[in-house]
Specification:
single chain, about 375 residues, alpha/beta, Aspartate Aminotransferase, domain 2, 2 domains, 7-stranded mixed sheet, about 15% strand, binds pyridoxal-5'-phosphate
Length: about 375
């Protein structure tokens, strides 16, 4: 059996090696390291793929979120509602901009932000909602966009984990993750579904004025050389990363489908297991189907409901198989983000999830032998 890895970047590299090596060699020869033609081409290609008017490449997914919030002109003290169960970057940039993060609970089946909890958290100071499309599946965007419109709030999609996923609206219309709100962000961190070979990120919007503002912010607030109209940052996608992404983007749908196939096999193996809950796929389809592209499985996350999650993690370790616990501590209990407004009783789902979730190896190169090995390990241990 091939060694099981949490993500297999090397396998993907070998399939695009020639193109990547040639493009990088070309960049090295021309020395167009920053703002080279690959960056502009990648921007256009991603706009086309996503069906969005503007892609603004930047340095990483955390910057993308921060710049999105700066571009919307959010001010110190404005409240921004986001999920308690996500990677810290989401809440970090809110706090960094001296906005007030307001964490709310998530749904037990999709792990995504709970719309009823958002509604309860809205005050006169609320200015934005940040849904995180966690683990590769969109949050309930129908309800979130409706709520945002009713309360005149911005919607900033943290799409670091769901690039390529589709959301099917109630009326049947489909849109790509990250392009439904006022602005969306993504990360090209190597292990993300569309990863480069270093750091990278991008911001998406259909709003021409906002796009213009964002393009200035990523470049020191300059709209005219050496005229600094707003406070900006220095956040760029470099040419080498753009070249890698250009080689990978045409394969993104293939990558997503390989992940979905692995997820299907995992689901099948865990069918009927009393203490193992497989991830729920919503959004217009009842299972994992090939036609709707609604889940791109950045993570394949189980819930172990008989209290053996921690022991299972140890068991994985003893067997030399990687696994992950995303996320072990709710953000509302992280020292940096403690707030008197939070009440433990408001986070029943996150508080439970942190004890039950385990993410299995998930990437485009998993084979049947590896999947069988992993699923047997889980089933035997959980029932043992
Ligand atoms: C990875 C990630 C980020 C940050 O992306 P970086 O490129 O690592 O800065 C933000 N939000 C979520 C949900 C992520 O998973």
């Amino acid at each position: 059996m091939k060694k099981i890895q949490m993500v297999d970047l090397n396998g993907q590299y070998h399939a695009i090696k020639e193109q990547v090596n040639d493009s990088i060699a070309n960049i090295l020869e021309t020395s167009a390291f920053i703002n080279g033609s690959d960056v502009k081409e990648f921007q256009k290609e991603l706009e086309e793929y996503l069906g969005v008017k503007h892609v603004i490449p930047c340095g990483n997914g955390t910057d993308a979120l921060q710049i999105a919030m700066m571009g919307l002109g959010l001010k110190a003290g404005d409240e921004v509602i986001t999920a308690d169960f996500t990677f810290a970057a989401t809440v970090e940039v809110i706090a960094l901009l001296q906005l007030t993060p307001v964490l709310v609970d998530v749904e037990p089946d999709t792990f995504n932000i709970d719309v009823a909890a958002i509604e309860r958290a809205i005050t006169s100071k609320t200015k934005a909602i940040v849904p995180v499309h966690l683990f590769g599946q969109c949050a309930n965007m129908d309800a979130i966009l409706e709520l945002a419109e009713k309360h005149k709030l911005y919607v900033i999609e943290d799409n670091a984990q769901a690039i390529g996923a589709n959301h099917t609206f109630k009326d049947g219309k489909k849109q790509k993750a990250g392009t439904m709100g006022h602005v969306g962000s993504t990360s090209f961190f190597p292990s993300k579904n569309l990863g480069c070979y270093g750091d990278g990120g991008a911001i998406f919007t259909n709003d021409d004025d906002l796009a213009h503002t964002l393009r200035g912010i990523v470049n020191h607030g300059m709209y005219l050389r050496y005229h600094h109209d707003v406070v900006g940052v220095n956040s760029r996608l470099d040419s080498i990363q753009a070249a890698v992404l250009r080689a990978k983007l045409p394969k993104l749908d293939e990558y997503c489908s390989a992940r979905r196939n692995a997820a299907k096999k995992y689901n099948k193996a865990f069918e009927g297991q009393e203490h193992i809950v497989t991830p729920k796929t919503v959004n217009g389809c009842s299972g994992i189907c090939d036609t709707c592209d609604c889940h791109v499985f950045h993570q394949y996350t189980l819930k172990i409901t008989n209290g053996k999650r921690d022991a299972l993690v140890e068991h994985f370790k003893e067997n030399g198989i990687p696994c992950g616990v995303y996320y072990p501590i709710p953000l509302h209990r992280q020292k940096a983000y403690l707030d008197n407004r939070y009440n433990e009783a408001d986070f029943p789902v996150t508080n439970q999830l942190v004890k039950e979730v385990i993410s299995l190896p998930m990437h485009t190169e998993l084979d049947d032998e590896q999947i069988n090995h992993i699923t047997s390990l889980v089933i035997d241990f959980v029932n043992g």
